[in-house]
Amino acid sequence: MDSQFGLMNVWNQGDFVTKAVAVLLIGMSLASWIVIIVKALDVIKYKRLAKHSQDFWHSEDFATALNKLGTDDSNPFRALALEGREAAAHHRNTKAHLHDALDVSDWITRALRNGIDAFTARLQTGLAILASVGSTAPFIGLFGTVWGIYHALMSIGSAGQATIDKVAGPIGEALIMTALGLAVAIPAVLGYNALVRGNKFVLTKLNSFAHDLHAYFVTGARVQSGSGEAVVVPLKKG
């Protein structure tokens, strides 16, 4: 194989547009891989926290349960427990003003839902980058190929050499831009799909935890349904 055939030759012989497309695709690839790695680590962390969140209910009181969730402010399960506690305390302290407008169940539901929505927005940060890269990179690479072919044909035409060996090299090198676009888009799409599945798992666990918190702050106990019977796990309100 000719040692001059490849991406470096495309870069050396390409004009400003070709080089700009190549730099853009490389930048998009770096951005998508950074997002994939950072968000994948976040998903792994939140899955581990979701697994340990069940320890919350095996406690004698709320304060002890809260300590089992650790002190990390980024823990969504701990943040949700604090949101619920503050909402319940706020409702009790201002009951005379809120009683006619909103009962304790609706008030706590609103507080927990706001906490989940805020975490969902944080969890989905960066996914738009992957979606944009996955949908646009192939077309950017195709544009680079079309421009490269045009540039190569113009050069061949001006040189007056239109034999197959003179055409095949420049055209083949221009097609590398399409391959580069696909190489950028495919990991972005696969990473996006994997992160969406991971986020969905975490949010399912968080919603289940919020449901139990709502039952606890309203009734004083967490109620689980299983095998046709209700299992009540009481906690003393802290």
Automatic annotation (TrEMBL):
Transmembrane regions listed in the UniProt entry: 20-41, 127-150, 174-195
Main localisation: membrane
Residue intervals of the MotA/TolQ/ExbB proton channel domain: 100-201
Membrane topology qualifier: Multi-pass membrane protein
GO cellular component: plasma membrane
Cell inner membrane in keyword set: yes
Keyword entries, A-Z: Cell inner membrane, Cell membrane, Membrane, Protein transport, Transmembrane, Transmembrane helix, Transport
InterPro entries: ExbB/TolQ_transport, MotA_ExbB_proton_chnl
One GO BP annotation of this record: protein import
Pfam family, one: MotA_ExbB
Subcellular location: Cell inner membrane; Membrane
PANTHER family with a match to the protein in the record: BIOPOLYMER TRANSPORT PROTEIN EXBB, PROTEIN TOLQ
Quaternary structure (record): The accessory proteins ExbB and ExbD seem to form a complex with TonB.
Family, per entry: Belongs to the exbB/tolQ family.
Task of the protein: Involved in the TonB-dependent energy-dependent transport of various receptor-bound substrates. Protects ExbD from proteolytic degradation and functionally stabilizes TonB.
Protein name stated in the entry: Biopolymer transport protein ExbB
